[in-house]
Amino acid sequence: MKNVVTVVGTRPNFIKSALLSEEYKKNSVQETIIHTGQHYDVELSENIFNDLNLRNPDINLGINSGSQAFQTGKMIIELEKHLLKIKPKLITIFGDTNSTLAAAICASKLDIPFVHIEAGERTLINGMQEEENRIICDQLASLNCCATKLAVSNLKHEKIHGKVVFTGDLMLDLFLRKIKEANSPSVYLPKEFVLLTIHRAENTNNQTRFKQIIKTLGKLNTTIVWPMHQRAKKYLSIYAIDLPKNFITIAPVSYTQMIWLESNCYRVITDSGGVQKEAYWSGTPCINLLPKTAWTQTLEGQWNQLIGDDVEKITHAFKIKPKGKPYMKHFGDGHAAFKIYQSINDFL
Predict the structure, then answer these.
(1) Contacts of residue 340, Cβ cutoff 8 Å, sequence gap at least 6
(2) Ranges for the UDP-N-acetylglucosamine 2-epimerase domain (predicted)?
C-alpha cells in the first residue's frame, strides 16, 4: 500500500480518524487528509484537532455553507480535482455525513476503491438524511468495516457487493484510551447537572418540536448544560427562543472535556449517535431525542431511552433507573483501529 486519502469534515469524522491515522503512520502509509470544511465552527474543529493530536489537514476545501444538495455537490466537484492529482490506492471515509457521501460518490465515479468505516448501522427512520447517506456509502464501498455484529448482519441481509468485516468501534478505542485524561471544561458547573446536545435537523428544523423540547427541559428541577452546536444556535435565533433559567450554554468543548461531561452528569439528553454510545460506555443513563437508534445495543437495561414524537416522555424517562451494567463488548475489544488497518491491508 503506497498512499491513501482520508476524507473528513465533521467532529465525529475527526474523532474516528484519529487512531486509524496512527496505524497508517505506524505502518509507513502515506496518508493525505482532506477536510471538506463541513464543520465551520473554528472552536469546534480546532478543539478536536488539538485535543487528539491530529495533524492539520493537507487540504481544506472550505465548503461550509449552502443547502444539503449544494454542499454535497460542491464537495464532489472539489474532491475530484484533488483525487485526480493524488491518485490514491484507497480512500477512507467514516460514518454518515455529507462529507462521507460526497467522498463515496466521487471515489465511485473515479473507480477508486474506498473503505467505509462504521458501515451497516441502521435506524430504520424513513427520510433521515444521515441514514440515506450511510446506505448509499455501504452500497458503493469496496470494503465495509462494521462497528457491531448487528451491522454485519444488516449488510448481509441487504446483499452488499463489497467485502464486509466486523472490526469493532473506533470510538470505543478512543474512549478507552482517553477516559483517564478526561477533564472538566473551565466553566462553572453545579455538582448535579444534565448534559444536553441537539444538532439533528429532525429536532432543530421543526420549530414546534424544538420549542417543546426546550420548554419541557425548562420545567425540570435540574441544571441543563448545553455545549451548543452551530445549527442549534442558528435556529434558536431564527425562532427567537429565550432559554429557561435552568440552562447553562457553553462553547463547543474538546473531546476529553466532552467525555468528562458525559461521565460526570446525572443524565445525558441527545440526538447524537456518538454521544449515546459514550454515555453508555460511561455508565450514564441517556434520553434519546429520536424515535429510533442505530445503536440498539444501548437500549438494553434502559440505559438509552427513546422518546419518539412525545416530548413529554422526557419527564417520565428521568424516573427510570437502568438495570444491570453496560456491555462494552457489543462494540468490540478496543482494538478496532488495528483490525481496520489489517482489513485494508488484506483487501489491497
Answers:
(1) 20, 23, 115, 117, 145, 167, 170
(2) 25-344
* Euclidean distance between CA atoms 82 and 85, whole angstroms: 5
Contacts (Cβ under 8 Å, ≥6 apart) of 4: 24, 29, 30, 31, 32, 88, 89, 90, 91, 92, 344
Domains of the chain (ranges; CATH) run 3-169+332-347 (3.40.50.2000), 180-330 (3.40.50.2000)
The phi and psi torsions of 258 (rounded to 5 degrees) equal: -65, -45
Helices 170-178, 273-282: axis angle to 10 degrees equals: 50
Q: pTM value?
A: 0.93
DSSP string, 235-250: HHHHTTPPPPTTEEEE
Q: How many CB atoms lie within 10 A of CB 234?
A: 13
Query: Both ends of the chain: CA-CA distance in Å?
Result: 7
Q: Given its phi and psi angles, is residue 195 left (phi above 0), alpha (psi -120 to 50 degrees) or beta?
A: beta
The Cα 214–Cα 321 span in angstroms is: 23
Which residues participate in catalysis according to the annotation? 199
Phi, psi of 332 (to 5 degrees): 105, -165
Gap between the Cα atoms of 99 and 148, Å rounded: 22
**Residues 34/59, Cβ–Cβ less than 8 Å:** yes
pLDDT for the residue numbered 51:
86
Determine the 3-state secondary structure of 4 from DSSP. Answer: strand
pLDDT per position as a tens digit, 160-211: 999 999 999 999 999 999 999 999 999 999 999 999 999 888 999 999 999 9
Q: Which helix (H) or strand (E) holds 33?
A: strand 30-35
Largest CA distance in the chain: 57
Q: Do 250 and 227 contact (CB within 8 A), yes or no?
A: yes
- Residue 287 backbone phi and psi in degrees, to 5: -115, 120
> Which of residues 125 and 70 earns the better pLDDT score?
70
Q: Which residue has the cell 425548562?
A: 218
Considering only CA atoms, which of 50, 293, 274, 284 is closest in space to residue 172?
274
* Closest to 145 (Cα-Cα) out of 125, 110, 127, 171: 171
- Cell numbers found for residue 88: 490514491
